[in-house]
């Protein structure tokens, strides 16, 4: 294994562990889960963080090769062979224990490969197709971790995960643009009269706020539909998914509170609002 391969693997593993411990990517619910579930989620996040860091932060001329390395290790996981990367060896334990199929992990890889070639999305439907690769597989994996997979739950999970991805794109407009990507649909930007320079302003122009508000509204509707998933779950699966839904609702409230000014810094949800939304979601019937 080369120095760069080892570095990206170790960085991803450390970040995923820190984020799960602080609840950054798994609000509220992470602290309430048993150790076995936390360990499996940590292993899944280790994989997702490894793939994301390669796609976003590795030197551009090394990204394809590093993603190929991860894919070869994924093949080893499902062939019952020992992977090279420590993060992939961790993932292998979770795959074996929870019976997770390879397809969602491959879709996450495909999303990061697409990020290397596609930097703009013409329509909202095009963005939804990207979310089917970059976000929806995470929900499938989580449901497998909790042994809660059914066709109707997977369909509702897709709505939740797509909504969360769109919310993240709204929050990260400035960061994404610095990385050479624009996830806001191009036809919406044109319809509101936005130009490329709007994405580099110190304060979000009114017309760009309109585009962000439109995407946030779409995400809110998806999240409201997908929230029907929580009453269909029991035990710790319900606790975990309620945390995801609550995080999305709190993030939408933060965007609205900041009047969709996303260029001055990504609006952060208030912990108090997060707790309120989690309690409401968890108690939903």
UniProtKB/TrEMBL annotation:
Q: Name one GO biological process term.
A: terpenoid biosynthetic process
Q: Which GO terms describe its molecular function?
A: geranylgeranyl diphosphate synthase activity; squalene synthase [NAD(P)H] activity
Uppermost EC category: transferase
Q: Which UniProt keywords apply?
A: Transferase
Q: State the source organism's domain of life.
A: Bacteria
Write the Enzyme Commission number(s) for this entry.
2.5.1.21
Alphabetized Pfam families for the sequence: SQS_PSY
What PANTHER family does UniProt report for this protein, alphabetically?
A: BIFUNCTIONAL LYCOPENE CYCLASE/PHYTOENE SYNTHASE
Q: What is this protein called?
A: Squalene synthase HpnC
Q: Which organism is it from?
A: Actinomadura chibensis
Q: What phylogenetic lineage does the species belong to?
A: Bacteria, Bacillati, Actinomycetota, Actinomycetes, Streptosporangiales
Gene this chain is encoded by:
hpnC
């Amino acid at each position: 294994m080369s120095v760069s391969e080892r570095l990206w693997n170790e960085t991803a593993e450390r970040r995923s562990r820190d984020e799960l411990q602080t609840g950054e990517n798994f609000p509220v619910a992470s602290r309430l889960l048993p150790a076995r579930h936390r360990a499996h989620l940590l292993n899944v996040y280790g994989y997702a963080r490894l793939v994301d860091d390669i796609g976003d932060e590795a030197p551009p001329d090394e990204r394809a090769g590093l993603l190929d390395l991860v894919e070869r290790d994924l093949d080893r996981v499902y062939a019952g062979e020992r992977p090279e990367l420590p993060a992939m060896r961790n993932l292998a334990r979770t795959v074996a224990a929870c019976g997770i199929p390879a397809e969602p992990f491959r879709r996450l890889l495909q999303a990061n490969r697409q990020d290397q070639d596609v930097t703009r999305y013409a329509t909202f439907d095009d963005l939804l197709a990207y979310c089917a690769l970059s976000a929806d597989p995470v929900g499938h994996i989580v449901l497998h971790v909790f042994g809660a997979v059914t066709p109707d739950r997977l369909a509702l999970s897709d709505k939740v995960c797509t909504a969360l991805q769109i919310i993240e794109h709204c929050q990260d407009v400035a960061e994404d643009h610095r990385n050479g990507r624009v996830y806001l649909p191009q036809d919406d930007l044109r319809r509101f009269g936005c130009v490329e320079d709007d994405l580099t302003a110190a304060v979000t122009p009114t017309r760009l706020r309109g585009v962000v508000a439109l995407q946030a509204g779409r995400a809110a509707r998806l999240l409201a539909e997908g929230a029907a998933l929580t009453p269909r779950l029991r035990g710790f699966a319900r606790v975990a998914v309620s945390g995801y839904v609550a995080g999305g609702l709190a993030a939408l409230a933060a965007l609205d509170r900041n009047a969709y000014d996303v260029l001055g810094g990504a609006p952060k949800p208030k912990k108090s609002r997060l707790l309120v939304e989690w309690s409401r979601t968890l108690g939903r019937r």
